[in-house]
Amino acid sequence: MIQRQRMWKKNLYENIDYPDNYTDKTFLDELKKNVHITEISPLTAVFGAGLVTQEMCVVVFFVIVYVYLYNGWIEPETVFVQSSLVAAVAHLTYRTLLTKNNYYEVMVKDLRTVLIFVVFGYVLSPILKTLTDTISTDTIYAMTTFMMIIHLIFFDYGVPAAIVSSSLSLNAAIFGSVCLASRLSSPFHAFVLLSNAVECFVLLPILLSKGRGSVTVLAAMITVAIYALWTVSLIMMFLFVCVTLFVTVLCPFWFLRWQNYKDNIYGPWDEAVVHDTQM
């Protein structure tokens, strides 16, 4: 009597009559491709890359302030007054538009925070200035460049990714600012530079996060950054323009082109995912 072979099932313990590597022709019926793919328009890709360009402009603004203070092209009092006025107007606008409840309570709390920072920053500026004073200038500039690159890599651009670390990004930028502060001529210069570091790397990103995707904001920041670099170095201006075109134009073009080759497969070989359903 001929024993009939059992029908193959997707249970290893029931497939006694089949080799371990055997699969039925129905195994690939559940194959799916690019299940979670998201279609991205060219404009969206450019705006996404523009967030990186915006933060690059912020770094340029801070470096330009340092160059002007270091060369004595501008007085620190002028920088402090002008930057404080701009920060105050931007903060009042931000709070007026977004704070609807307990407005005065929030403003008093913010004012207290500003006063604490100004007092402690001014008192500690002599210490911060001499913190890296014994390190050579070339090493300081190399460390600052490295810290700013870390700041740009780990900055939160609004994309949920494992590499994002706002604390690491901010700490890297502040550490780079402390390094540059040691090259200035007086503790007050260092205090002004560190105040600008807080305004550029703490306050400005909060304000810019509310205007993400704005062509006007992006174009204005790029224009101001190019003009500021033009006043310092034509070579640096040219390099910045090239990097801006690479990040804002070429990278989105490559991204959209390579999206056509995306071919992720999903099927019964994937790991099981347990979904917690409430009864």
From TrEMBL:
Domain of life assignment: Eukaryota
Which GO terms of the cellular component aspect does the record hold?
glycosylphosphatidylinositol-N-acetylglucosaminyltransferase (GPI-GnT) complex
Q: Which UniProt keywords apply?
A: GPI-anchor biosynthesis, Membrane, Transmembrane, Transmembrane helix
Q: Where are the transmembrane segments?
A: 43-68, 80-98, 110-128, 140-159, 166-184, 190-208, 215-232, 238-256
Q: Where does this polypeptide localize?
A: Membrane
Q: Does the keyword Transmembrane apply?
A: yes
InterPro entries per the UniProt record, alphabetical: Plno_GlcNAc_GPI2 (IPR009450)
How does it sit in the bilayer? Answer: Multi-pass membrane protein
Provide the family line: Belongs to the PIGC family.
> What name is this protein filed under?
Phosphatidylinositol N-acetylglucosaminyltransferase subunit C
